[in-house]
Amino acid sequence: MCKAMRTSAPPIILASLSPTRAQILAEHGIAFTQMDSGFDEESLAVCEPAKFAYIACMKKLESSLELLAKQGKYDHALDSGLLCADSVVSVDGKLLRKARDKQEARNMLELQDSKRISILTALAYKSRHISFTDLSACHLELGKFELDDMLGYVDSLAWQGKAGCVMVEGFHKRYIRRQIGLESSALGLSIEKLARFWEIV
């Protein structure tokens, strides 16, 4: 596991309430605080998966800076560094966002069954002197879902808040036959890319 080179830096601001992204930062020894970006992804009328992830991420960055400015914390945010991210799932070129109910969740899972899915994660980091953006993809070749297992996952509601209802660390893990790309990208934050950037600068 790589450790990001920020031992003497103040905690960054993670503009995401995702517990998985928070866990990734914590596991890599990165001090941080969390906030809601305030951006509603549903307001985006974009259907192309990669484009959606990138635009949503940049909109989250813009929205977060506006919120921090209103709170008188803009300078603090730039001194600390602000991190935003967005992930979407693509199956056969179709964009899958977050399911709104159980039926939609089941439909998404049925679409993924025995397929190759792509998880696209965009991230943006901005501080006073540097900025970094990245768009990464992790491709997963999935086996056949067991119906009872899938229905149990739907009923558990563990898919809530997850793009395409994909839970790499949970339900989907046992069905992954092949992975191409970083697991962190599949989890929603390509930390290796960010860590490498910090090492360079």
Automatic annotation (TrEMBL):
Pfam families xrefs: Maf
Keyword DNA repair: no
Cofactor: a divalent metal cation
Keywords assigned: Hydrolase, Nucleotide metabolism
One of the GO biological process terms: nucleotide metabolic process
Entries under InterPro entries matching the protein: ITPase-like_fam (IPR029001), Maf-like (IPR003697)
Keyword Hydrolase among record annotations: yes
Single Gene Ontology MF annotation: nucleoside triphosphate diphosphatase activity
Entry-linked NCBIfam families: maf, PRK04056.1
Name under which the protein is recorded: Septum formation protein Maf
